[in-house]
């Protein structure tokens, strides 16, 4: 996401007196930000260190974002709002299996584990960060609602199910195991979770 992209024109030459915002450097800056965040926590992030990690000057950050919080919010939106399209897997169980496997891949990353916990702790202190995290959660729940809609259309679920509870159930067990308890989850355990979650959702 480029908040202040500058068009260099078809020739590719820099406009006179202006710096060109390079997308590849923006991506590198996002990666450096997340590395710093995982090591220090959000409150202690140093933009000087982030720039140094990216092999750039601090001005490269301020050409793109006026503050640390806007930098962090853009990074979260770019990385977290893109959701894989599972499509119709023909049954709720298969969709749950696919969803849990993709979630497991994300939560196994040690950097992501640290950032998730720190971001949750930071929500009450940083309203702007809280707003973008709310947007990420809302996007995840829309994705989950798609799964529920397809299951209802296949007559696997009742139309009047408690959706809020069902959506909570989709991620609660894997989040508890991998983030709060810091345990790995095997594929066999994921399969068991899918069975239990399906049964629980059907009881909603």
UniProtKB/TrEMBL annotation:
Designated name of the protein: Bacterial regulatory proteins, tetR family
Keyword Secreted attributed: no
Lineage, broadest ranks: Bacteria, Pseudomonadati, Pseudomonadota, Alphaproteobacteria, Rhodobacterales
SUPFAM superfamilies the record matches: Homeodomain-like (SSF46689), Tetracyclin repressor-like, C-terminal domain (SSF48498)
All residue ranges annotated as the HTH tetR-type domain in the record: 23-83
Domain of life the protein comes from: Bacteria
Key words, A-Z: DNA-binding, Transcription, Transcription regulation
Any coiled-coil regions, as ranges: none
InterPro entries found in the cross-reference section: Homeodomain-like_sf, HTH-type_TetR-like_transc_reg, HTH_TetR, Tet_transcr_reg_TetR-rel_C_sf, TetR_C
Record feature DNA-binding region, as residue ranges: 46-65
Annotated organism of origin: Palleronia marisminoris
GO MF term list: DNA-binding transcription factor activity; transcription cis-regulatory region binding
């Amino acid at each position: 996401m480029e908040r202040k992209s500058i068009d260099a024109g078809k020739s590719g030459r820099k406009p006179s007196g202006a710096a060109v915002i390079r997308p590849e450097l923006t991506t590198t800056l996002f990666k450096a930000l997340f590395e710093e965040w995982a090591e220090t926590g959000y409150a202690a992030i140093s933009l000087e260190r982030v720039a140094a990690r990216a092999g750039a000057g601090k001005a490269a950050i301020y050409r793109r974002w006026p503050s640390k919080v806007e930098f962090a919010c853009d990074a979260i939106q770019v990385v977290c709002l893109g959701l894989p399209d599972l499509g119709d897997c023909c049954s709720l169980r298969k969709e749950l299996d696919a969803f849990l496997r993709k979630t497991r891949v994300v939560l196994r990353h040690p950097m992501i584990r640290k950032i998730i916990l720190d971001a949750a702790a930071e929500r009450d202190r940083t309203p702007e960060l809280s707003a973008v995290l709310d947007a990420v959660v809302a996007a995840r729940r829309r994705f989950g609602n798609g799964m529920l809609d397809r299951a209802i259309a296949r007559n696997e679920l009742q139309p009047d199910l408690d959706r809020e509870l069902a959506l909570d159930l989709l991620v609660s067990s894997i989040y508890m195991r991998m983030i709060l308890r810091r345990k790995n989850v095997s594929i066999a355990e994921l399969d068991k979770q899918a069975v239990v979650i399906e049964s629980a959702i059907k009881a909603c």
